[in-house]
Amino acid sequence: MLVSSSGPTSLIGIIGNPLSHSLSPIMQNAAFAALNLDWLYLGLPVTDSSLKSLIKDLENIQCRGLNVTIPYKQSVAQLITELHPIARTTGAVNTLIRGPKMGWIGTNTDVEGFIAPLKMKSTNWKTKKAIVLGCGGSARAVVAALIELQFTSISVAGRKLVSLQGFVNNYKSFCPQLKYILWDRFSINSIEIEAFQQALKDADLIVNTTPIGMTKRQNTHNSLESPLTDLQLEMLKNEAVVYDLIYTPRPTLLLDKSVSKGHECIDGLEMLVHQGAASLKLWTGVKDVPINVMRDAALSYLRS
C-alpha cells in the first residue's frame, strides 16, 4: 500500500523479466482511472534469485494483487501453496489475488483471455481440430482452453522431444486427444515434415504461441519471420482460423499472409485485453470492467 496526499493508494503489479514490452500497466491504469479507483499498477522486474522474496515482500506490504509474465508463470505456480484448479491444470500462474487471511491464491486468466475472442468467432468448437505451435507456458493455457472448448484433436508442435513428452504427460489423464509432433522449421526429416503438414491440413484452428515474428517496434515486415511458410499456409483449410498470440507488430507476418489468403485471424492483443480484464475482476470484485477502455489504451500506445 502506498500513501499519497489523498490517502492510501492500492498497489497492483506485474512481475517478470523483461517488462519493457508489457502493455499491462497501460491497460490497467487506464481501467483504474475509468473506475475511479485510487490504485496504481507497476512493472516489478525480478530475477530468479529474488522471485520468492519479492512475492513475500509484496504480500507483507498489502499489495492487492499481481500479474505474472514470462519467464515465471511456472515458477510462481510452484511457490504458491493455494492454487485455483485451472492453475493446477496448466501448471502456470499469471494472476495472484489476496487470500481471505494471509498469503496468495494463484490462478490463470490466460485461459479465459484466449477463449473470449474465439467465442466471438463461433460459439461451438466441438469436434474441431487444432494445432498449437510451441510448448511453453503460453501453450499450457491454450491447451487448457482447447480442452474446455471440447476440441476433439489437439496437436502440440515443438522442437524438443523431451519438452513435448513432458507437456503431453501433464494432460494425459484427462485429455487423450492431445498428441505431440516434432516440428523444426529447418528440418529435413521427411517423417517429421509429413506429420506436421498433415496436422496443418486437418486443423480448424492454428495457434502460434512461439515468439517467431515478434518485434519490439512497429515497422515493416522485411526483417520479420513467420512460423509457417507460404507453402504450409496454402495447405490450410479455407475456413481455418489463424490465432497468433503475438501483438507486436500488428499484424504479424503470419496474420498478414493469412488474411491475404482469406483466413479469419485473431491477434494476441485480444487475448491480452481479455485476460487483463479477467484479472481486474478478481482484484476489484467489479463484474463490469471497462474492457473497451483497456483495449483503446493499449492500441493508442502501440500506435504512438
UniProtKB/TrEMBL annotation:
SUPFAM superfamilies: Aminoacid dehydrogenase-like, N-terminal domain, NAD(P)-binding Rossmann-fold domains. Signal peptide: none annotated. One of its GO terms (cellular component) is cytosol. Keywords: Plastid. One of its GO terms (molecular function) is NADP binding. Pfam families: SDH_C (PF18317), Shikimate_dh_N (PF08501). The keyword Kinase does not apply. Residues 268-299 form the SDH C-terminal domain. Residues 14-96 form the Shikimate dehydrogenase substrate binding N-terminal domain. GO terms for biological process: chorismate biosynthetic process; shikimate metabolic process. Gene3D superfamilies: Leucine Dehydrogenase, chain A, domain 1 (3.40.50.10860), NAD(P)-binding Rossmann-like Domain (3.40.50.720). InterPro entries: Aminoacid_DH-like_N_sf, NAD(P)-bd_dom_sf, SDH_C, Shikimate_DH-bd_N, Shikimate_DH_fam. This is Shikimate / quinate 5-dehydrogenase.
